[in-house]
Amino acid sequence: MARQVKDLMTTDCVTATLLDNVYELAVLMRDHNIGFVPIVEGKKLIGIVTDRDLVIRGYAAKHSGSAAVSDVMTTDLKTIGADTSVDEAAKVMANNQIRRLPVVENGNLAGIVSIGDLAVREIFANEAGAALSGISQAGEPESHAYH
């Protein structure tokens, strides 16, 4: 039986809502030592914001700290279900050049699986290596997508 994402995903996720602003997201990231915050309405996943989003879509676009979350969040999300195999999750990460992948059930955020989740557990080393290799090799030579 294939290993499933639910066996290694993080379920205690720090989240934010559309009522938060760019400054509050930055503080959440600092205080929790994270670079990725799912944006939810209730439990429904509606977007994500990464530390890179804050820089590129926020500050580099001259948005102030009081700018709305919606000004910087990504809404075109790649997600997987909790029963997705670890191999498939690694392929999704590699093919889409993403390092963190929201896990949803019926549209609700169930957890997050990251390259680190794959790499930390020795039994998943091959999947993490494959995903990281795909992320590192895909795309333009001058263009890097870090999430």
The helix-and-strand class reads alpha+beta
Q: Name the shape in a single word.
A: globular
Number of strands: 4
Q: For this structure, what is the CATH homologous superfamily? A: CBS-domain
Biggest sheet, spatial arrangement of strands: 1-2
Organism: Paenibacillus glycinis
Keywords: CBS domain
InterPro entries: CBS_dom, CBS_dom_sf, Diverse_CBS-Domain
Domain CBS: 9-65, 73-128
Describe this structure as you would to a colleague.
This protein has a two-stranded antiparallel sheet with strand order 1-2. It starts with 21 loop residues before the first helix and ends in a 10-residue tail after the last helix. Helix 3 packs parallel to helix 5 (125-137). The chain has one domain (5-137): CBS-domain (Roll). It is globular and about 45 Å long. With 147 residues, it is α+β, with helices and mostly antiparallel strands. It has 5 helices and 4 strands; from the N terminus they run H-E-E-H-H-E-E-H-H. It has helices at 22-32, 51-59, 86-96, 115-120, 125-137; strands at residues 36-41, 44-50, 100-105, 108-114.
Index terms:
single chain, alpha+beta, CBS-domain, two-stranded antiparallel ribbon, two-stranded antiparallel sheet, globular, disordered C terminus, CBS domain-containing protein, CBS_dom, CBS_dom_sf, CBS domain, Diverse_CBS-Domain
